[in-house]
Design brief:
The protein is of the alpha/beta class. It is built from twelve helices and 16 strands.
Length: 453
Amino acid sequence: MTIVATRSNDDPQRLVKQLPPEFYHSFLSKAAKERRPSPIRGLYPLEAKPGVISFLAGKPNDAMFPFQSFSFTATCPSKPGQSTTVSLSGPDLAEGLQYGATAGLPRLSDWFMGLQERSHGRRRDEGWRLSVGSGSQDLIWKAVQSLVDEGDPVLIESPVYAGVIPMFKALHCEEHEVETDAQGVCSSSLRSILESWPAGKPKPRIFYTVPYGCNPTGMTATIERRREVLELAREHNLLILEDDPYFYLYFGKAERPPSYFRLELEQPEVGRVLRFDSLSKILSAGMRIGFVSGPKPILDVMDLHTATVNLQPSSLAQSIALALLEQWGYDDFYAHTKAVSEFYREKRDVFEKAMRTHLSGLAEWGTPEAGMFFWFKLILSPDSDEEGDSKELIEKKAYEGGVLALPGAVFLPNGRKTAYVRAAFSLSTAEQVNEALERLGVVILKERGRASR
């Protein structure tokens, strides 16, 4: 295997070594290896040649689109309390109303690449590229389809974001759970799994993790854990799927730990991290815009999947986001995300204060430093060392008592019983939080009474 080395155009002294394109062939699924370019979309770039008259694509004539302009009002992050008007018309609107590039509008992709350089220190000429998708969930599914065959073993942190469990179940994967704690993924658990792997049996090729404000646990992985995971990925030839929708919702007291995407610059070569970002938590969940950053060979096959399944992410949603982001610029974007993280920090504090008031002695929890969730353990039988089961209490008794939350079992790939519960603190007012947790406390006390009979 020949390692490729590039020097940054901006800094000739900076040398970044990259894994070569052929390295990724063994990671691709059978389906990914069989995908072929769209006979139409694969030729779109040829239309850009000056002087070419194209009869290629079946694009509708935009003269028949009834929309003439869009205008909306948005906050002005650098001037709290003020707003700004953003307009979309002319060529920018025409681009938003028409079919577009499979990997996303070029200007939006370029803006996101600039963001990745600022947020993660990854320069655009150093062995990676970016694709836009219809939310990060869309891109994660396409990555799994591109990297995992039916029945393959996969490594997933546990508890894990419930939205990925069906992806692996549909492929009948062997789901190997890597333990987590308050400091994030337990690298010792990952090492134990890999080092005790049966000889002759193919090892997992991917490890899935949510490193900031994990859904459901709220944990944020420490820099030490992240470095250990990166070392294990290199030692055992893994790709890391870094799902990071809560990166900009970090509100811990310590400096935010660097991402896997940034930290892999410390490795002898880059190219083992596939990073997923989302605008859902910071601009709009309904716009369905996410983007993936990583090695070109993997993103290329993901784009082939997109070209077949849904052609592209929404041009209009991208154009609206681009108009706002270009008007804001990076400084206002960061000012906005700072306000977002502060908003959720205050929501967290309100929720935790209510938990201390109503659930002290009835539950145990850690304080999340990012995200939108509390993960707490119900103490259903204080006189017993046996861990209880939150499933029936939360799904039935708490709901009958006027509280809706999620039992922890839905976040465990094997569905085993657990006393843990996930509660989202993003929407409820302080009054609603206090009322709901008071109700939950009553339900727990009733359950304790039954258990003591």
